[in-house]
Known about the structure:
The protein is an all-alpha fold. It is about 75% helix and about 5% strand. The protein has 14 helices and two strands; from the N terminus they run αβαααααααααααααβ.
Amino acid sequence: MSDNKKAHEPLIHIVKRTALPQYRQWLIRVGAVVLALVVTGIITMMLTGENPISVYSTMIDGAFGSSRRVWKLLQSLSMLLCVSLALTPAFKMRFWNCGGEGQVLIGGLATIACMICLGGKIPNVLLIIVMIIASILAGAIWAIIPAIFKAKFNTNETLFTLMMNYVAIQLVAYFEIFWENPKGSGHIGVVNPSTRAGWLPVIGDKEYLLNVIVVLAITVAMYIYLKYSKHGYELTVVGESENTARYIGVNVKKVILRTLALSGAICGIAGLLLVGGTNHTISTTTAGGRGFTAIMVSWLAQFNPITMIITAFIIAFLGVGAGEISTVYGFNESLSDIITGIILFFIIGSEFFINYQVKFRSSKKEVK
């Protein structure tokens, strides 16, 4: 009987690792990035004949080649980081909030509504205060809707939040026609270009510095909230086991609603910064897919807001760099997406080898 079991033993076993030291985890991640660069370099050379080192140099130049490019990278990084921070409390609670895209759009829609309807009618300082409150409330309410159904009826939050994205997109599309400028254009032009009513202030001559400062403050606050606050402790316990949370007296429904309100509120702030501080208009693409990319950023950082700065930077850099090589070399945009995809695949794949190890069947035969 034992011989039969031995004969059918799988060739490969995947075994859960004990926790690796931090330095070994980062060595694996760095090794994955190096291997990814080698693979993408070979593929680039085969498909285009270009020197891979020149291609990588172009990516770096696209991100850091001038002060304007650096600030654009920081803007991209800060907005992606902001949405990632927003989703993190929900994910840590094991509430799979895939509705970041819609929550950002709704926050942006509330912002643009204030700019259009109140611009020039109330003092600009008061208008900006109203915009902040409106965007936070709009994002929070949009996130609380699926939270209520989850808390009361145990609905599937992944599907619910995904569907809410499409509702938000259609709402923005409706108001694009309703507020279109000029008429018949099908889109909202830059709002209040002459008066700049509702435009968030520029610090010095740095156009995106306010966005960066706000997101940096949110990052520090989120780290403290998750690590040291009672609320952060409660949502972590709920994520580990709802039964345990109830046993120690945690009101699980209250925690779910509170956490999703926070998640949506920060997404609303992201919408405020994108509309009031960056674009001064809105469209169905204002969120730019950040609501989905942020899921990857949060997971790669293992829900640590400080580590999230690094993962958000890597993805923002790849996005900017890929766009630059498409422009400089005239490549099809699909090639730059392939390069980015391969690098991300290796980075994400490295997490498997951090958490698991592959073992092969022993070749030793049992002694009879």
